[in-house]
Amino acid sequence: MKLINKKNKNYTQVFHIFTEEDWAKTSKNFNKNISTFFTGKKHEIFVNAHEEGITYFIGLGKSTLQNFEIQQVAIKFSQTQKGKLQAAPTLVLADFMTEKQFEEFTKGLLIGTYNYPFEKNHAFWSTKFELHFENLSQKKLDNINQKAEALSNGQIACQEWLNKPANLKKPDTLSLHLKNLAKKYDLKYTSFNRKKCEELGLGAYLSVNQGSAYDAAFTILEYKTTVKNAKTFGLVGKCVLFDTGGISLKNPDNMHYMKSDMGGATAVLGTLIYAAEMQLPVNIVAILPITDNAISENAFLPSDVITAYNGKTIEVLNTDAEGRMILADGLSYMAKNFKTDFLIDLATLTGSSVRMFGDTCGAMFSNNEELKNLLIKTGDKTNQRLWNLPLWDVWKDDIQSDVADLKNISMKPIGDCIVAAKFLEEFIENHPKWAHLDIAGVAFGNVGYAKEKAATGFGVQLLADLIENYH
Ligand code: BES
Ligand code: MG
Ligand code: ZN
């Protein structure tokens, strides 16, 4: 895609974008037939084929719409008109559009090209696809183009990995991909195998991995800026490639969805790609404890007591509460080995958060007001919303164990997402700016590009926006 500040005389493809109010004012200048079919409502598309080419009338709805809604419209337009759109110079007519609005529109066009398995063969990814828009300077358009491509590359990578079936994302496949990605973007790549993890004492992570047929891959990716005094973001993403529940086996009815149990990791992956392509003036340390949660003769057992990286002992009462085990070591390894200004973990952690919020928002837990408010604000802005839940100490009573420092579940049928957050808090080593995002209900769900549930990309735009705009 190219964005160009000009307007020629003849175009074979035109995107004419309207809000309802805008259409009400200008519709009289158009052929009467058009106004009987088109009103400017959100997501409305009217295709007018004429002698010179095709004009797409695109409705945005009320003029009070938020920026993310423009992205939604562009995504749907891109998805539904896929087959017809040409890789050709295209005129955009939208006099009311602000820079931010045009940015969202462009992002949406590219994000909307995604389907599984992804091939970059959509007209929009061709350099012959030019959007001609005279209302913004070439400099602004170049900036928008770079942002839109970086974001969609990040979000598409996130969705692609989450959507892959379990047999196509074994630890070695993912590790190879991450290694190549590190090379491409000049990231530092470190990965600990089982032997190394044993030496380091990553016992909570290893308890989950010991039942796996595949070697451990506790992986660290670092993006560094050359800018001095830059802030450092520590990101930990749950990366369970498939969660059978282990010996505490899951019910098979919905088990296939558990290929999505790496949704925290893919959100982090997409954010890294965005930061690296944009060369953002920040540092990012990402920890992805990669494993599956399998049943085998070596699998960990309910009643096992294991020692985590920070020395705390954990009584395993349910092997299906594996996410908090691997995150425990991810968090304390981060806190003990890296100096970070913010520590954020993302995880498809609990069914409890799904029962509470469905697909409307992620559950957030944080020990820091500033970070909490920033995340809520960014979530509202990007439509990847979060709702804050408590970290009150009364919830800690329920994870006291008779045989260890902690137990991994409370055994009470209430508030497991809060219990899990309290559990994780034991492993942040008093980091003053920590947030835990339980994204089990929002990472994988109904989407416009697939019949069944699929990856939503949740987390990428949230983190990208947060990191890019933090000063
Ligand atoms: N990966 C699941 C959580 C999950 C549930 C993600 C639904 C996406 C959709 C997690 O590992 C898990 O199994 N959690 C258990 C914990 C329970 C045993 C305390 C759960 O929530 O049922
Ligand atoms: Mg589980
Ligand atoms: Zn899980």
UniProtKB/TrEMBL annotation:
Which SUPFAM superfamilies did the record assign? Answer: Zn-dependent exopeptidases
Keywords from UniProt, A to Z, are: Aminopeptidase, Hydrolase, Manganese, Protease
Keyword Protease carried by entry: yes
InterPro entries membership: Leucine_aapep/pepB (IPR011356), Peptidase_M17_C (IPR000819)
Q: Which domain of life is it from?
A: Bacteria
- Specify the Cytosol aminopeptidase domain's residue ranges: 318-325
**Keyword Manganese, does the record have it?**
yes
The similarity annotation says: Belongs to the peptidase M17 family.
Q: What is the designated name of this protein?
A: Cytosol aminopeptidase domain-containing protein
